[in-house]
Amino acid sequence: MFLELQNLYFEDLTLGRTERMSKTVSSSDIVGFAELTGDRNPIHLSQHFAAKTPFGGRIAHGLYTASLISAVLGTRLPGPGAIYISQTLNFRAPVRIDDTVDVEVKVVELIPERFRARLSCVCTVKGEVVLDGEALVKVPSSGVQKVASA
């Protein structure tokens, strides 16, 4: 799953501009995320262990779901060159294997003097919010030229 790159500059952004993506979570996604991060909590990796928890089965890492927001920010809104400043995350419900996570990122504030955008970030599964929060990103400006370093 690779999103097509969309390169937006600060001047291209408008309040309410929205981008979306969807990703169906697989067991291999969860195992890969565990390998990448070192988070081997058995609630993510062991059906036997996870069956004994209140979730009744394996769930995806919360930050795996949050990383789908990062995919939208880095590829679509605002896209290449965007720099994360901060991100708030509220984990509302578990994400399970074979769930399709729908991610929506929307511009809610523009800060022109700093070339920053505040973005609402919401992840849902079957219409239920599983994660929400806000991101603050620095966005490249079409009027700013790179200066060669010495």
Key words describing this protein structure:
150 residues, alpha+beta, six-stranded antiparallel beta sheet, 4 helices, 6 strands, elongated
Structure notes:
The chain is of the alpha+beta class and 150 residues long. It has helices at residues 27-37, 42-45, 47-50, 62-75, and strands at residues 18-24, 83-87, 90-91, 100-111, 116-125, 128-138. Strands 1, 2, 3, 4, 5 and 6 form a 6-stranded antiparallel beta sheet that branches. It is elongated. The termini are far apart. The model has no long low-confidence stretch (mean pLDDT 93).
| Spatial gap, N to C terminus | 39 Å
Query: Radius of gyration, rounded?
Result: 17 Å
Q: Compute the number of helices.
A: 4
Instruction: Give me the count of strands.
Output: 6
**Class by SSE composition:** alpha+beta
Proportion of residues in helical segments: 10-25%
The shape is elongated
Uncertain parts: none
Mean pLDDT: 93
Oligomer: single chain
% residues in beta strands: 25-35%
Largest β-sheet summary: 6 strands, antiparallel
List SSEs in N-to-C order.
EHHHHEEEEE
Question: Which helices and strands occur, and which strands form pairs?
Answer:
Layout: E1 18-24, H1 27-37, H2 42-45, H3 47-50, H4 62-75, E2 83-87, E3 90-91, E4 100-111, E5 116-125, E6 128-138
Antiparallel strand pairs: 1-4, 2-6, 3-6, 4-5, 5-6
